[in-house]
Design goal:
Layout (H helix, E strand, L loop, with lengths): L7 E5 L6 E6 L6 H8 L4 E7 H16 L4 E7 L8 H13 L7 E6 L1 H13 L5 E6 L2 H7 L4 E6 L2 E8 L4 E5 L8 H18 L1 H15 L3 H21 L14 H10 L8 H18 L5 H13 L16 H9 L8 E7 L5 E8 H14 L2
Parallel strand pairs: 2-9, 3-4, 3-5, 5-6, 6-9
Antiparallel strand pairs: 1-2, 7-8, 10-11
Helix pairs in contact: 1-2, 3-4, 5-6, 5-8, 6-7, 6-8, 6-10, 7-8, 9-10, 9-12, 10-11, 12-13
The structure holds nicotinamide-adenine-dinucleotide and zinc ion.
Length: 376
């Protein structure tokens, strides 16, 4: 069977900056033909990390070989620390040394770290060179490669230096995920479930039924889940590219989740997607405790996320590190928090999320304290 027959294309309809996301097992074979049309000369720059390079350099080279495209490689150590200003400068210097021009293209080949930094480098290089994303983590395929947010971290905080810069093409080849550690896969899966919870109850139902197939990377199921997620994010981004309104819904589970990540000092025993899964379960339970969310929906969210092995309760967490007062004070540091109130994404049910503009942090703290008391 020609694997290309099972590719799905998601169009991100941003007018002059519109682009395609190609999704499916084997989608990478499309890279050569697509790049040929895009490039002014048969050469492209590839930014990656050492782990992705080790596993998949051959696959990317193979994908452009028949098109006769030469690739210039630059790889960085894996991990969030790589997303630094110093490394950004290194990437720009490599591009300059290689004679990169506005007509050239930078391919970000890796997870969200490489995608975020590659996008920012491309936006800065001679005020903007071509940019293509080939995401290799599930999180990057369904989230960070869609929407054009790029950034690096500074010691003062995460993602503080960045730009909106859209790629010209995204290729999400689910076959590349076969080498991804299981926890990373599940962390990305949490963001998939998020789209169902925001505004697509039928998708949530489908995931409740088929989630294991997605996590087992069965080609059809993985393609469907990734494409539907990209389409969901694309629709929100098209409506609100620079996050002044509806794009905030993508933060479902993130205000709680970020507080847990920060309280944990970003240690790797709580991955971002794991914190988001916990945060979504908590947002639904807080909604239920506040009379906003049907209790049965909160229970179902917990059950479905928990069944895929994601954290959904405070069981087993360190009581001091994750003390309710500490978490609430971290939530207070949200840049939109005002006078003891913080915007929270809550839900009137599964698939019915909305921006609750002024959740009372004292009540959030009481809720977290009660959750901790209940936890084992
Ligand atoms: N721009 C956005 O809209 C957006 C959205 C969400 C997250 N992000 C950013 O994305 C980053 C997180 O992305 P991530 O979870 O992909 O992390 P990551 O890029 O650090 O990748 C996670 C780990 O998986 C490894 N890896 C990647 N692909 C692999 C593969 N195919 N096989 C084996 N190992 C592989 C990496 O080397 C790394 O160790 C954060 O910096 C976050 O801020 C950005
Ligand atoms: Zn997230």
């Amino acid at each position: 069977m020609n694997p290309n027959t099972s590719l799905e294309t998601v169009r991100v309809d941003l007018g002059a900056r519109a682009y395609d996301i190609l999704v499916g097992h084997g989608a990478l074979t499309e890279l050569g033909p697509r790049l040929s049309v895009m490039l002014k000369r048969p050469r492209a720059f590839v930014l990656t990390d050492e782990t992705v390079m080790r596993h998949h350099k051959g696959a990317l080279e193979g994908a452009v070989k028949t098109a006769g495209i030469h690739l210039d490689w630059y790889s960085l150590p894996p991990g969030e620390k790589t997303k630094s200003f110093a490394n950004l400068e290194g990437v720009l210097d490599w591009l300059l040394a290689g004679g990169a021009d506005r007509g050239d293209t930078l391919i970000a080949f890796g997870g969200g770290v490489i995608g975020d930094m590659g996008g920012l480098a491309a936006s800065l290089m001679k005020r903007g060179m071509g940019f293509v994303q080939v995401p290799t983590t599930l999180l990057a395929q369904v989230d960070s490669s869609v929407g054009g947010k790029t950034a690096v971290n500074t010691p003062r905080g995460k993602n503080l230096i960045g730009a909106f810069y859209q790629p010209r093409l995204v290729i999400a080849d689910t076959a590349l995920l076969a080498t991804l550690p299981e926890r990373e896969l599940k962390a990305g899966y949490a963001e998939i479930v998020k789209y169902g919870l925001i505004n697509d109850a039928p998708f949530f139902d489908w995931l409740a039924e088929n989630g294991q197939k997605v996590l087992a990377l069965e080609p059809e199921a993985a393609r469907y889940a990734v494409a539907r997620s990209c389409a969901a994010k694309a629709a929100i981004v098209v409506e609100d590219e620079t996050e002044t309104g509806v794009r905030q819904l993508l933060n479902l589970g993130h205000t709680f989740g970020h507080a847990f990540e920060a309280a944990n000092e970003y240690r790797e025993d709580l991955l971002h997607g794991e914190a988001v899964a916990l945060g979504m379960a908590l947002a639904f339970r807080y909604g239920a405790a506040s009379g906003i969310t049907p209790a049965a929906d909160a229970a179902r969210v917990k059950q479905v996320l928990g069944a895929s092995g994601l954290p959904v309760s405070l069981n087993g967490l360190d009581r001091e590190r994750f003390a309710a007062a500490r978490l609430a004070s971290l939530m207070q540091q949200d840049k939109k928090a005002r006078a003891g109130r913080v915007p929270l994404i809550l839900a009137r049910g599964i698939g019915a999320a909305y921006v609750h503009p002024d959740a009372d942090l004292a009540s959030v703290e009481r809720f977290l304290a009660a959750e901790l008391t209940e936890a084992t």
